[in-house]
Amino acid sequence: MGTRVRQAMILAAGRGERLRPLSDYVPKPLLELGGKSLLHRHLEGFARLGLERVVINIGHLGGQIRASLGRRCMGLDILYSDERDNRLETGGAIVRAREILGDAPFLLANGDVCSDFDWTPLVTADAVETLVLVPNPAHHPGGDFALVNGQVQCPRAGRATFTYAGMARLSGAWFAERVCAPAPLGPWLLDWAAAGLLAGWLHEGRWFDVGTVARWRDARRACGGRHGL
């Protein structure tokens, strides 16, 4: 019997170099689309799922994130993993946050993505570790992974690829032997895919990676000023 997901982590510590000058004054997860910040959009989705707590790693301008959300928001307990003095990248951030997450499963979301993806199938007790994939966007035409019969596989010639959406269900236990030091998550995902450990869910709905000023503006236009995608 598996464990139903009760918690999530949002990766929100990045400097957002490609979003300058916007990110000189506002941390990129607090940039708004349709009148709501990217962070608040994530929290709304997690609250609807009935999650209990969300861990957010903070770095660049992290004090603004704490001031915006506080310790409780939308019925969720908000806990912070403070990296303002030592940024750990996406993998190292999860290793450090494991002090809070423990060995239990959790939902993971990049703080600079926005989507209408329905997480519901990934929170059930019988769900497994899963990456959310999307059709390759124009800025990433080569994709990241193959998807064969619901299983994430490493890309190889002659096999269609998809892009990792920056959203996943993972297990805290998988990070138990990792060293708490700066490290990207991507290579670990490739290792787990090569070992056949990851399921995949292809989302063909709306999804934005708000990683540059141009893509943020595109996403704002797509949202049309509405409070929702």
Automatic annotation (TrEMBL):
Gene3D superfamilies: Spore Coat Polysaccharide Biosynthesis Protein SpsA, Chain A. It holds the Pfam family NTP_transferase. The keyword Isomerase does not apply. Residues 8-124 form the Nucleotidyl transferase domain. The keyword Transferase applies. InterPro entries: GlmU-like, NTP_transferase_dom, Nucleotide-diphossugar_trans. GO terms for molecular function: nucleotidyltransferase activity. Keywords: Nucleotidyltransferase, Transferase. This is Mannose-1-phosphate guanylyltransferase. It comes from Acidithiobacillus caldus.
